[in-house]
Design goal:
Number of domains: 2
Number of strands: 15
Shape: globular
Number of helices: 9
Strand order of the largest sheet: 5-4-3-2-1-12
CATH topology of the largest domain: Nitrilase/N-carbamoyl-D-aminoacid amidohydrolase
CATH architecture of the largest domain: 4-Layer Sandwich
Helix content: 25-40%
Radius of gyration: 20 Å
Length: 312
């Protein structure tokens, strides 16, 4: 068991371009204070929630962009320190002469500790707005688990999801304008990590790594908190069931296995604090899902089939 309380806050609407930045920021702060009563480990806000330009031009982007630290960062840093929570928020970010569509993570004391830059901005962001695509990202180890980031249009590019999967990411922070619908469900089920989404729409979801919706916002309740066990891994059933059976016998009562037969995988969950599923997989030589798929790719290529490059 490695429990995490994950909160999603919706503070903007699809009509964000018609609102004053101060009004959106004040609404976000008010709702973070409200959800702070749940004592979250992490609070997630939407894409460029507080400094989105009215139109996407190089001039408006340059005028709107903020550095880290900067005004929005400092406002949210105070709240992170007050509630002892990580806060992740979308920001149109300036770094020297470059501009990025970023997800900034503050630690429990309010210190900026990690930044994810959107690796696949839309063409208009790059061409019209002068926004640069981010470099190859990395996951970040919070004290409750390993997180990765994706922003809006990123969700269309499976190589990013597979990249995080291979980094053993446990929670994807999806900060977006659009809700992404079934694309989020697909990433959760395919890559075996939980997904928390905060968007410009009222209906935002937290999805666990089985694809189940475990938290949701609405027009009535614009924030939610879900308690999750992040100490879980998806593995394929092939060649692993006998090993998993031995695992269950040795760690009776401390490990659960969920049958996800429709996808031909199963979920290994540790219920014991300090007993990491990653260590169990190594102890019983369980073949991970990425390793199993890679092995099939290699055999396919050896038999004259297609070779698929992996972003590693």
């Amino acid at each position: 068991m490695r429990e995490a309380r994950i909160s999603v806050v919706n503070s903007v609407t699809a009509h964000i371009r018609n609102e004053e930045w101060d009004a959106i920021l004040n609404r976000a702060k008010e709702r973070i204070r409200s959800v702070g009563r749940n004592k979250p480990d992490l609070v997630l806000l939407a894409e460029i929630f507080g400094n989105h330009p009215a139109e996407m031009t190089m001039e408006t982007v340059a005028e709107a962009a903020q550095t880290v630290p900067g005004p929005i960062t400092e406002e949210l840093s105070a709240l992170a320190g007050e509630f002892g929570t990580y806060i992740a928020f979308g920001l149109l970010r300036r770094d020297g002469e470059r501009f990025y569509n970023s997800l900034v993570l503050l630690d429990r004391k309010g210190k900026p500790v990690w930044t994810y830059d959107k690796v696949s901005p839309m063409a208009a962001e790059m061409v019209d707005g002068g926004i640069s695509p981010g470099a190859k990202p990395s996951s970040f180890d919070c004290d409750f688990g390993r997180v990765g980031g994706a922003i809006c249009f990123d969700i269309n590019f499976a190589e990013l999801g597979e990249f995080y999967w291979r980094q053993n990411t446990e929670l994807l922070l999806f900060s977006s304008a659009f809700p992404a619908g079934k694309l989020l469900d697909h990433w959760a089920v395919r890559y075996g990590f939980a997904v928390a989404g905060s968007t410009w729409y009222a209906d935002n979801r937290i999805i666990d790594c089985t694809g189940a919706v475990v938290g949701r916002t609405s027009d009535i309740l614009p924030y939610t908190t879900t308690v999750m066990n992040l100490n879980r891994r998806v593995v394929h059933m092939d060649y692993n069931l006998e090993k998993i059976d031995r695992m269950l016998s040795r760690y009776a009562g401390d490990v659960l296995v969920e049958d996800m037969r429709d996808e031909a995988v199963c979920m290994i969950t540790s219920l014991k604090p300090g007993l990491e599923v990653a260590d169990l997989i190594q102890e019983f030589e369980v073949e991970t899902l990425p390793d199993y798929l890679d092995r099939n790719r290699r055999v396919r290529q050896e038999h004259g089939g297609m070779a698929v490059p992996i972003w590693s």
